[in-house]
Design brief:
Blueprint lengths: L5 H20 L3 H17 L1 H8 L5 H12 L5 H12 L6 H15 L2 E8 L5 H15 L2 E8 L7 E5 L2 E4 L2 H27 L1
Parallel strand pairs: 1-2
Antiparallel strand pairs: 1-3, 3-4
Helix pairs in contact: 1-5, 1-6, 2-3, 2-6, 4-5
Length: 197
């Protein structure tokens, strides 16, 4: 979620709790999340479909009929039924937020945490295992690594666990060195001027 809408998050939590309870009862919690993420990807690729789902201008009865035709049999009954409930309450606009809330609540229930790792080159398996072990100890939960590559880091890593950030990148070290050298130069200039006066 790029910009958090607290009202949408609150509404999404209400629906999410029921969906997660039902999904775990039927041992579908992970597959439901995967389906919702796949549907989000379709919405991102097809703006017309996304607009059809979230706009209040479409009649709820017409949308219900089309959702049945499009999705029943292609997605789980639990997801289609959940979409229909959201539609009846005119809350399909929270679906994108709901997916993120669902993922977060699932992780909390199962002792997992997202660990975002940015590196200058792709991580090899050995380094992945090391990072998972270290961040698991640090967070006290099972880490789910989300790796990305940013060549501008030059080397090292930037790791984010929730609000915590660990930056061991070469780019950061160079920025710090540049700032330190600039500060020293400024201090020496100031001292030289003071002596000259």
């Amino acid at each position: 979620m790029a910009k958090v809408d607290e009202k949408q998050v609150a509404v999404a939590r209400v629906y999410c709790r029921s969906m997660l309870d039902l999904a775990e009862t039927g041992e579908q919690a992970v597959s439901l999340l995967e389906e919702m993420q796949a549907l989000l990807a379709v919405m991102a690729q097809n703006r017309d479909f996304r607009n059809f789902l979230v706009t209040p201008l479409v009649d709820a009865g017409e949308r219900e009929r089309i959702l049945e035709q499009l999705l029943r049999g292609r997605l789980s009954d639990l997801l289609v039924d959940s979409l229909q409930v959201l539609n009846r309450h005119r809350r399909l606009d929270v679906f994108e937020t709901l997916v993120e809330v669902y993922r977060t609540q699932y992780q909390e229930r199962h002792g997992e945490v997202d660990v975002h790792v940015t590196s200058a080159v792709p991580l090899n398996d050995a380094l992945r295992r090391e990072i998972e072990a270290a961040t698991g100890q640090l967070a006290g939960r099972t880490p789910k690594l989300i790796a990305s590559v940013d060549e501008s880091l030059i080397g090292g890593l930037v790791i984010r666990i929730g609000d915590r950030k660990i930056d061991t990148s070469v780019a950061r070290a160079l920025r710090n060195l540049r700032a330190e050298l600039g500060e020293r130069a400024s201090q020496q200039i100031h001292e030289s001027r003071a002596r000259a006066e």
